[in-house]
Amino acid sequence: MPTVVLMDVSLSMTRPVALEGSEEFQRKNLAAHGLTMLFEHMATNYKLEFTALVAFSSLWELMVPFTRDYNTLQEALSNMEDYDKTCLEAALHGVSNVVQQEWGSACPCQVVLVTDGALGIGRGSLRHSLLTMKQRGEDKKFPLPFAFPSKLYIMCIASMEELQSSDALNNLEQLVSINGGEGQVLAVEGPLCLKNVQAMFGKLIDQAYSPFHAVLRCGHQASDVQVFPRPEPIMIDEEVDPLPRTIATDLEIVGFIEIADISSPPVLSRHLVLPIAVSKEGDEVGAGAPEETEDENSANQMAGKSPNFCVLLHGSLKVEGMVALVQLGPDWYGMLYSQADSKKKSNLMMSLFEPGPEPLPWLGKISQLGPISDAKENPYGEDDSRSPFPLQPKHKRSYAQNVTVWIKPSGLQTDVQKILRNARKLPEKTQTFYKELNRLRKAALALGFWELLKGVAELLERECTLLPDTAHPDAAFQLSHAAQQLRLASTGDSQHASFAHNIVPMPTDFSGGTNSSSGDRM
User: Fold this and answer.
1) Which segments of 289-399 are extended strands (E)?
2) What is the predicted pLDDT for the residue at 482?
């Protein structure tokens, strides 16, 4: 995920730090050393990561937009100037603008705030911002939580004792909490020196920027791979005591399936799968120091000539138009597939399904899938003209009862007009009239649309007064009865406003009298 480094360049960062037996450092120098360590690690292990550099004091400035060129970031870091007081709120607004302009509000992002723990003075300080946060209008809203998914890491160029002596630590931890709790406040352990600052940034690297290495296996074939970006642990909401689930470092391919059968399934995240070239000595190629560039280039050339299962798998999936189902852990699966960036370039990707034995209902349980050779006859047919998917449910579902949806006014108008048309044809359409009336009544009760019930009742009463002299007497009774029942339902009476209650036709003697008289004549 992209990273924004937010560097404090206020005057408090120029405070000197006395180091034994060496020249005098400023806090901003220690911060620059720590960020240099982070950038060097990312240049080696996170080459595909986009990183931006923002400087702030009372105002903020985008020093380097999102880039993969870490030399540019290093150069901008060494050329930063000193400015005035600290204003964290303005800086967080700047981060929000930079990320949303480049990536929108759906892309997860990591924000690394480097500061000395000085919160600013007076209006614009972090203390003032947190105290007035709940007393503002929408136009002056506090920038946290960010509008995009994010983790906030606050790197304090100060010792823990220094932060605890004031309320700085509590206020900074409150920032992480407001942003959703994802992230951490890290401070220097022990005296403020270069070694301890590097140890603090080492903790950040271990938590947020350690590469995820795994072994991809298929039968007797195996390949060392890096999964990028690192898969995040997920929580299962249905469990009583949810625990974070992480994918295993052994990724086992359990089978292959056609792209048309798996279609476009819902996934938790998508990741690049990159092969890791391993030398004869067993060391990963490219893990050496920067001055060993020539040796790395020659090692990469040698690695490019050695066979690799990951490359074979990628080419096979691309040519055959299939995906590989891979087991990520107990009852947790994903899929490997080839995705084209352009006409000439494609990558091996891995998508993670929801944990569970049946993540895709149309495939059934993944553990029950088997090879075509085990079937009595080819489920795809001799000429691949059919497919065994999607699986048909054991019990046929009835879709006779359609759900009433009123997204547009025309839908509601159509339902009301249908009731009125049947009302004018009473008593012949008595059953249809009450069926449509009850359908509208249930939908109105479910939505709390009491005014609709009153309005339809008034319409039925009006229709009753407009009946012609030749109309059947039963029509007037049924319309009055239906209007009365709707009015009772609109008042919220426990009996008549019950969702399960249905309005039934009013029993009359007209049909019974007619039948008895005709029976006498016969």
Assistant:
1) 322-329, 332-340, 346-352
2) 92
Lowest mean pLDDT among 162-171, 296-305, 487-496, 503-512: 296-305
Distance CA 27, CA 157 (A): 6
Structure-block tokens of residue 454: 């009153």
Of 248, 262, 259, nearest in space to 217 by CA: 248
CB atoms within 10 A of CB 343: 6
Alpha carbon distances (Å) from 299 to 43, 274, 293, 310? 18, 17, 10, 18
Structure tokens belonging to residue 13: 């960062």
* HSE value, Cβ hemisphere, 13 Å, CA-based, for 458: 7
- How far apart CA 441 and CA 490 sit, in angstroms, is 10
Q: In the chain, how long is the greatest CA-to-CA distance?
A: 127
Structural tokens at position 98:
């930079």
Q: Is the pLDDT of residue 284 over 80?
A: no
Spatial CA neighbour of 27 closest among 185, 188, 170: 188
Question: Do 325 and 256 contact (CB within 8 A), yes or no?
Answer: yes
CA distance 279 to 153: 36
* Contact call for residues 255 and 325 (beta carbons, < 8 A): yes
Cross-strand pairs, 61: 55
Name the token pair of 394. Answer: 């054991």
The DSSP result for 433-487, as a single string, is HHHHHHHHHHHHHHHT-HHHHHHHHHHHHHHHHT--TTS-HHHHHHHHHHHHHHH
Sheet containing 51-56: which strands, arranged edge to edge? 60-67, 51-56, 3-8, 109-115, 150-159, 183-188
Question: What is the reported pLDDT for 341?
Answer: 77
pLDDT tens sequence across 306-363: 788 888 999 999 999 899 999 999 889 999 999 887 777 888 999 999 998 889 988 8
Rounded Cα–Cα distance for residues 121 and 237 (Å): 43
The alpha carbon dihedral of 306, 308, 311, 316 has a sign of positive
